[in-house]
Amino acid sequence: MPSTRSLPWAKVIFGIAVVALLLASVLARSGFRCPATACGAGCPPSRAALSMPHPFVADPATGALLVDLDDDASPEDREAVARELAGAIAPFAWSSGLGEMLSDEAELFRVRAPESEVSDVLARLGRNELVEGIEVERTWSLPETELGFVPSSQPPAATDGERRFTPDDPYYRFQWHLDQIGMPEAWARARGAGVVVAVIDTGVAYRDGDRFLRAPDLARTRFVEGWDFVDDDAQPDDEHGHGTHVAGTIAQSTHNALGVAGVAPEAAIMPLRVLDRNGAGGWGAIAASIRWAADHGANVINMSLGGGMRSRTVERAIEYAHEKGVVVVAAAGNASRSTVEYPARHDHVIAVGAVRFDRTLSFYSSYGRGLDVVAPGGDTRVDQNGDGMPDGVLQNTLVGRDPRRFDYVAYQGTSMAAPHVAGVAALIVGAGVTDPDAVERVLTSTAVDLGDRTRYAAGLVQANAALARASQESGAARGALAALLGLGVLVGLRRRGKLGVGLAGATMLAVVVAGGLGALPWHLVPGLGGLESLLAGGGPGAAAHIGGRWTALFAMSALVPLAAVALMLHFRKMQPLLVGLCLGTAAFLLVEALAPTTAVALLPGWLVGPWLVLNAGVALWLGRQVARQSR
Fold it and tell me: What backbone torsions phi and psi does residue 73 show, to the nearest 5 degrees?
């Protein structure tokens, strides 16, 4: 009878592998980057950049203070801070408590104290342990240039081939910026179905009602509930035009024989108004909107706004959204200097600069430390592509800030570049890669290198290449590991005479479950559409992407194979399938721990890696036990 003892060297190798995977998962979850990839944000500015003086201009103050309490503050805590505030404002009378509440969940308040007492309030509340942060509120705004025109053209013939899709929108021929990032090829793969993008801006012309009309070319665009943080109501209507333009670049109604196209036309827009009709808004409204978006189901946030000063309140809101698995994209700024503006400069934000048709940096674009990628932002001074129109970014929006008049208008700015990236991020999320850091890695690793890392960072975003990376590479890696695990476990059992299932069949099933189908070029199969991402994502990844927060947690665990074994172990013909399911799940979870692609809700970030490795071990052990029991 063959010995059942494991070889000593096998135990040593297994122990080393477990330790290596744990270390790798910690590094991956902590945002570790190789030195070679950090240059995009950290290289010193060029001599030309250093020779361009740009005096610093402070962002305008609103006359208020932002007081941010601990998120778990009790009513008693609020009262205690309010008493401290009243004491700081004395001898002036104060009966307003903590002032205006901007976010109940975030415990964020706006206080308008007498000017002479501001320094006392900052000092006293800054020392209070119940106060996470306090700062003078300032405004950020929209530094864009616009040029309005109505193009005149015949609709191009729509094509829907195996590798390229051209929409029938008549003015698409003037959207050079969509071709520049590879959208015709990307549309043949995916169009953002099931993803929600929050547009934090001047609002969006999303409805007919009162004195507002829905933008004609947003008629088929899907919208979800939003909020107006300027007027504090549930109607975030656009009174400026900027937010509608941005929303159009992300998810304009496409292939509807009208107007223009958008990057992710099947994504839903969440309109959040934080800027007034003049294009300015306070830090408090911006911070509250970021948290609101994260709490109401947004997958991606776009902020085409900013200023030169850092807000700790906004920064904490961004950290909150990142922890909840939201991808945050922001415009780098139009200051034409080697300093990226805020909020793009904050950690956990994908900062986007702007290029022209010829892929050179637009004259207005900010660049340098903190920049992540570039995207088309336009230059309305020139017509480099010779189409008879200035090279702006074309979308359907308000004319003259009149919410009842619309036209096809070309804007230029990093405000226009950012929504291209937000749209591509939506496509990546729709393909099953939902972890914000993983989305950023896909974007930067597939961008076209334009040479100067100071000015272009990782390079020009490419939608088709990003989708290919998102849907194929993770699946191939999982499938390869599943094959190795399956062969290792099953061959070992066969050598000891304990294997009771077919070697080839169980291994192949493990590869399929883990996501090995992602190695195949599914985009070449006509009509698959969004199914490609499910085929490439593997069983657990597909379940995590489709389901809600609890479903995602269960899918990223050994619970599914455990339940399947409990229900079907006594069916002998099902045992090869069970072995494949267990080993495939183990492979999926191990690769996910090493290179995370899916946000795992309900778990703090530091615990995700160990959780995945632990459950992978359980699934691996379970598969081995089933294979032995099958004799």
Answer: -60, 140
Non-local CB neighbours of 329 within 8 Å, separated by 6+ positions: 300, 301, 302, 303, 349, 350, 352, 418, 419, 421, 422, 425
Q: Report pLDDT digits (tens) over 391-431.
A: 999 999 999 899 999 999 999 999 999 999 999 999 999 88
Q: Which amino acid is at 34?
A: C
Contacts of 150 (CB under 8 A, 6+ apart): 407, 408
Calpha distance 377→391 (Å, rounded)? 9
Higher model confidence: residue 5 or residue 510? 510
Length of the chain, in residues: 631
Give me Rg for the CA atoms of the chain.
27
Q: What is the pTM of this model?
A: 0.73
The pLDDT > 90 percentage for the chain reads 55
Long-range Cβ contact pairs of 227-231 (< 8 A, separation 24 or more): 227/272, 227/273, 227/289, 227/292, 228/203, 228/273, 229/102, 229/272, 229/273, 229/274, 229/281, 229/285, 229/286, 229/288, 229/289, 229/292, 230/273, 230/274, 230/275, 230/276, 230/281, 230/285, 231/273
Q: Is the distance from CB of 273 to CB of 237 less than 8 angstroms? A: yes
- Percentages helix, strand, coil for the chain (3-state, rounded to 5) are 45, 15, 40
pLDDT at 254 over 90: yes
Active site residues: 201, 242, 415
Q: What is the 3-state secondary structure (H, E, C) of 576-625?
A: HHHHHHHHHHHHHHHHHHHCCCCCCCCCCHHHHHHHHHHHHHHHHHHHHH
